[in-house]
Amino acid sequence: MKNILLIILMIAGLNVFGQNGHPSIMLTKENVQAVREGVKKYPLLRSSFDEVLNNANKALKIPINVPVPADGGGGITHEQHKNNYKNVLNCGIAYQITNDNRYAEYVKNTFFAYAKVYNTWQRHPKRKQTPGGKIFWQNLNDCVWLVYMIQGYDMVFNYLQESDRKYLTDSLWTSVINEQTVVNEKNFNVIHNFAFWSTAGVGMAGYVCGKKEWVEIALRGGKKDGKSGYFKLIDELFSPDGYYEEGPYYLRYAIQPLVIFARAIQTHQPELKVYEYRNSIIKKAVDCDLQCTYTNKVFFPINDALKDKTYETEELVYAVDIAYGNMASGDDLLDIAQQQKRVIISDGGFQVAKAIYEGKAKPFAYKPQFIKDGRDGNSGGVGILRTANNTNQTAVVMKAGTQGMGHGHFDRLNVLFFDNNKEIFSDYGAVRFLNVETKSGGGYTKENDTWAKATIAHNTLVVDKTSQFNEEWEEGEKNTPKLIYFNANSINSNNGRTVQVVSMEENNAYKDVRMLRTEVLFLPDNAESPILIDVFKVNSSSEHQYDLPFWYQGHLTDISFKYKTVTNSLKTVGDKSGYQHIWLNGEGKINNSNAAITFLNNQKFYTTTFWADSSTKVEFVTLGANDPEFNLRNEKAFIITEPKAKDQTFINITEPHGKNDPIAEFTIDFRPSIKNINLISDKDEVTAFSFEYKNKQYLVQLNYSNKQEFITIK
Amino acid sequence: MKNILLIILMIAGLNVFGQNGHPSIMLTKENVQAVREGVKKYPLLRSSFDEVLNNANKALKIPINVPVPADGGGGITHEQHKNNYKNVLNCGIAYQITNDNRYAEYVKNTFFAYAKVYNTWQRHPKRKQTPGGKIFWQNLNDCVWLVYMIQGYDMVFNYLQESDRKYLTDSLWTSVINEQTVVNEKNFNVIHNFAFWSTAGVGMAGYVCGKKEWVEIALRGGKKDGKSGYFKLIDELFSPDGYYEEGPYYLRYAIQPLVIFARAIQTHQPELKVYEYRNSIIKKAVDCDLQCTYTNKVFFPINDALKDKTYETEELVYAVDIAYGNMASGDDLLDIAQQQKRVIISDGGFQVAKAIYEGKAKPFAYKPQFIKDGRDGNSGGVGILRTANNTNQTAVVMKAGTQGMGHGHFDRLNVLFFDNNKEIFSDYGAVRFLNVETKSGGGYTKENDTWAKATIAHNTLVVDKTSQFNEEWEEGEKNTPKLIYFNANSINSNNGRTVQVVSMEENNAYKDVRMLRTEVLFLPDNAESPILIDVFKVNSSSEHQYDLPFWYQGHLTDISFKYKTVTNSLKTVGDKSGYQHIWLNGEGKINNSNAAITFLNNQKFYTTTFWADSSTKVEFVTLGANDPEFNLRNEKAFIITEPKAKDQTFINITEPHGKNDPIAEFTIDFRPSIKNINLISDKDEVTAFSFEYKNKQYLVQLNYSNKQEFITIK
To answer: pLDDT of A546-589, one tens digit each?
Structure first.
């Protein structure tokens, strides 16, 4: 009956938003009393509220400060305006839970302080784009400001006089919305993570202030034609599996406005069924982002990603609370919430804290899976192989999806390897010191382009020492890799254990070069943890240099072949395409058909044994050359190189083994168990090879066009 | 009465040892019943025993294996013999607590297995010294083997038939003692950490087997003249403060036989009053070793030290249990025991577990202190400045004691700085991969001599690019630095806060160069944590190059002066004295009187601001050159250099500041607060300078010969 009424009202074009009362976004009027009770009862809700209250009380003690915008990221006015929006939200929540007017008064006074000066400010002096931000150097930060501020406004809405609300709407909100939708119209209507923040802020302001116009453009774009706006962003930027074009790190950033706005839409316009939109894509996106982490809590550092970002970040607290509390996600999300150690004081956070209190938490269900990329799900994707173990998980990631726009790296068929809660073969991530103003103003440094995006910075093949697509990302957007095979449930006929496989093909990154890479996670007999079998098949009609780097984490402890190190004078390995950033420390030629490199990481040994021919050589390198501002970390790699080949198949098997415990002073199994990798047959349709593990021989056959029996291991 | 009887018996030369019954070392007959009860009652005793029992049960399941010795450190036979002695002790304890004969039988069978083959073995094939070990490559490991084995024997002594005991004494123990005291007579009678293990094993065997002769030579040396043996070791190797000549890492190694043998002596010959020997030096040594750790649990990495060694190591579990349980150390030791998460199943471990159960644990009392070195306590020492805070402690260590024999480094006046649970200015420690056979057989690599011991590897002055004493450690043994002043209780007349100071002088490390270094830990007004003021005064009658390196941990984020980086081709900074191992990444000349270098470590900023003159330059370097086997870590330093000077005073102030939180995405106080360091007056007797902190000026005066008012800060 109520819904019908709403629909009728909508059809009538009346302003219905906000008619359900306030607050109405994360915390809703009907649940306020329950949350108040819950704060007393549920430990996680209580400690989370204590933190909010603590911060709110701190805010009350300091005079409100709305400085004229001056600094870039990390600078004083930048951080002050960030503090202001956090204080407003904390005080808004504190007001709702405690009913203490002092908090509401603080929020009101902050709004009045902004209202007084906002329209007197010019464009931000440190802006790098046109038109740039107003409160902050980037318009993006202004959008974030609005998302927080409007929630605070919603919290104190009923506390304010009608006249105050009118004043604020006229003097502040309308100007802010104009700033977002008109002055920065381009950001508002772009298909990009920026626009999630922009549309969410504008749309929620519409709901709270009762401005239907703002909601409409937020949902359907500036022209209300559905070619931009929130729903179009969801359509375009997510694959059917919830994968986000720019990768898990940027999804982390977009997910907060994605879920908050969804929550607001559900309350104000339930008839839009936003939770069910595109087969519940929002819920899938939350799950997908969490699946794109390892047990060290860090997001897979695909594309431009900061490697210290974990799912403990605030954005994911919002996402988990809403997914669990409002979208009925599984109880394994409670495991993540427990590790986040906080909830948002909200309807969803209440549900999470209550369920944890009731003992419903289950270990987060990490799953091996192929995550499809592209809006229709047919643009490659990310293959994840992993063991179910949450405490000592082995995980392999193959990245072979869309380019990921300007934040994408030239890293098709890149492979990451994790084990024992550590990165083993790693991705550099982005070159950026977030919020450190002395480092390129806290933004991406120039090495992000010259190094981090380059193909050689990744664990994938480099042809003729150039990057894929000649480092033109628009070229990379034109096509995608192809999934050949994925299966996490193959059974090894020999020992009956599960074999996990992903195989993908990329034929456009380099002209006239076909690349087909297959990763297999396999547990041989008498092995404690699975080994990683990597088969990289390259075909070309002309001769090329093929470099296959492995950026390992750890310290080299053994090299099976003769090598020479450079002792007195280091040179770079090349002069462009990222090679100008790496120093050549040593190199060796392989004279046997097998070679092995061992390194020690977190008290465990890792050995990569690889098949070689008479021309194979290995370079040992360290990152750090041509780095005039000391922006790079000194990461290390070994590069397996074929100097001149048309067709080439690399077979590399990496095994974790043994232990070196410096506290208890013992070492076991410092020698690898893999021996005698032997390529038996290598054709377009089939690669067959054998190897020994602990003196038992295994015969592996990859049947590239056989979906029934893609892999056999005997 | 009993004591008198004992003395009479001793005088009579009768064999009295072992008359008190068995077991009689860590766990004694009279306490066995209490420990059995305690295992049921006290959680820490229970979990520790569960671990022992678990390992004992594992041992029972596997056939006893006593292989012919073949491998070096970390190799298969090496680790097997280590396992054997651990299994014997675990099974011995399990037998005492459970009375289950199966454990005793295992111990007996292991002894019989050794007895059968021990005398058939030749010298160890992988020995590096002469005569070397028998069971292991080093005799030292054979000594350790005996210390464990004899405890196991003591545990099952009463289970064995008299005839078995006779057989084992004749066929095994007598041969083992001969191996230690005759074949390896040199190790047995040397004044070195080795001999603690050697004498402890032999002496305890004497007690357990009732062989007075063995005890006597263990206590008073091979010639029974007191010129070597246990008591002489204690006399020579410890300062009156309990500091051990080779430093805290090697004390950690010597401490286990030191305390176990003391425990055995106390039981078997209480009249020797070993616990009170040299003013309770054993108890002081335990405390001293713990004081030589930072809150990250790691020993200060002075001299040859592995940096992953913490007080959780087994040796310190023995030390803490005996010091607390038998020597009446303070309740703050229980804090360490709690972090060790285990006790030895013994009289002492029982006391520890009981006291923790009774809630007696107090936070470990870290104290700023000057630890005197040298047997008479007048050979310099280690100055430790530190805040009392155990969770976010600031600590400064100045090393200026004896050379430390062959494991000593050429690092007089070296300064280490710790903050926020991390190393900030660090010492490389030793170049060694313990028990990793592929890395120089698990021993010290050659870079330990060419790099780790060199002066440039430390945070102290290098004169003319050569190491102290021309890297001849015997030269270094001839004299020591001098303590000028230490006080952890000075009061700043300005703000009334405590100022901690250590000042030391070294005049022999370089010919005709007098070096006087003063460290001050000082909390200015409005500072969150103390700043480190470093004043390094050098005087010479001739011109020298002075290099003062700071090996920092972290990533550079700001440099206040112009510098040039090397981009395409790295060269080493020098060709000897350690300089051949460091690459020159960049350098700059200081054109102002002050310069500052900022780096980020564990989300906190650190800035070193230093006073400079027109010839001061700074080099930025990375370790790793001339490293043919990839043994070195790529540590980083900035080196403040005066290319040509006679007298020079370096003033460097390092301040922790701000925070950079990449999860919550905020940055505060990335800029330092120290400004305008100005040298006002610098004479033999006085150095006076001023600086500003948060716009307040401080005037510091160091009065080198005034013990009443050494420092004033106004």
So the answer is: 999 999 999 999 999 999 999 889 999 999 999 999 999 999 99
Tell me how crowded residue B574 is: count the other CB atoms within 10 A of its CB.
18
DSSP readout, A81-113? HHHHHHHHHHHHHHHHHH--HHHHHHHHHHHHH
ipTM score of the complex? Answer: 0.88
Look at residues A590, A581, A589, A594 and name the one whose alpha carbon lies nearest to residue A636.
A581
Which pLDDT score is estimated for B20?
A: 64
CATH superfamily of B2-357: Chondroitin AC/alginate lyase (1.50.10.100)
Residue B560 in contact with partner chain A when CB distance is under 8 A: no
Q: Mark which residues 105-164 of B lie under 8 Å from A by CB.
A: none
| B498/A contact by beta carbon, under 8 A | no
Q: For chain B, say whether A663 makes contact (Cβ under 8 Å).
A: yes
Question: Looking at residues A378-402, what average pLDDT do you find?
Answer: 94
What is the b/e burial string over A362-375, where b = at least 16 CB atoms within 10 angstroms of the residue's CB? eebebebbbbbbbb
B60 touches chain A (CB under 8 A): no
Q: pLDDT value at position B4?
A: 47
Catalytic residues of A: 250, 407
Range with lowest mean pLDDT among A29-43, A127-141, B200-214, B289-303: A127-141
> Could you tell me the sign of the dihedral formed by the alpha carbons of B398, B401, B407, B410, in that order?
positive
B639 by Cβ neighbours in 10 Å (0-12 / 13-18 / 19+) ranks as: buried
Q: Does A270 touch chain B (CB under 8 A)?
A: no
- Each domain of chain A, given as residue ranges in start order, spans 2-357, 369-713
What is the fold of A369-713?
A: Beta-galactosidase; Chain A, domain 5 (2.70.98)
Residue B2 has a pLDDT of 45
For residue B667, the chain A residues in CB contact (below 8 A) are 73-74, 79, 434-437, 442
Helices (H), A450-579: 473-476
- Going by pLDDT thresholds of 50, 70 and 90, the confidence category of residue B12 is very low
Strand partners, A370: A383
* Crossing angle of the two packed helices A212-220 and A193-209, in degrees rounded to 10: 160
Average pLDDT, chain A: 94
Q: Tens digits of per-residue pLDDT, A312-322?
A: 999 999 999 99
3-state SS of A286-319 is HHHHHHCECCCCEECCCCCCCCCCECCCHHHHHH
Contact B451, B578 (CB under 8 A): yes
pLDDT tens digits, one per residue of B285-304: 999 999 999 999 999 999 99
Q: Which residue among B79, B433, B569 sits closest to A557, beta carbon to beta carbon?
A: B433
| Closest by Cβ to B435, choosing from A556, A628, A665 | A665
Q: Please indicate whether, in this complex, the C-beta atoms of A570 and B567 are within 8 angstroms of each other.
A: no
Chain A residues within an 8 Å CB radius of B310: 663
Q: How far is B378 from chain A (nearest CA, A)?
A: 33
Residues in chain A closer than 8 A to B136 (CB atoms): none
pLDDT in tens, A7-22: 444 443 334 454 469 9
Question: Using CA atoms, how far apart are residues B183 and B143, in angstroms rounded to an integer?
Answer: 12
CA angle A675, A676, A682 (to 5 degrees): 130
